[in-house]
Amino acid sequence: MSDSAGDRRGGRPCPVCETPLYRRHCKYVCPHHGVVYDCSDPF
């Protein structure tokens, strides 16, 4: 399995550029801006 096998795209958009975020473990990652949300952030 590759490292990206657990990544899921879609759901929340990036608050900066509106690109769909990747979910990686307990973080939401924008391909352009890096981690923008963490599990500890309130939604």
TrEMBL record:
On the tree of life, the source organism's domain of life is Archaea
User: What protein name does the entry list?
Assistant: HVO_2523 family zinc finger protein
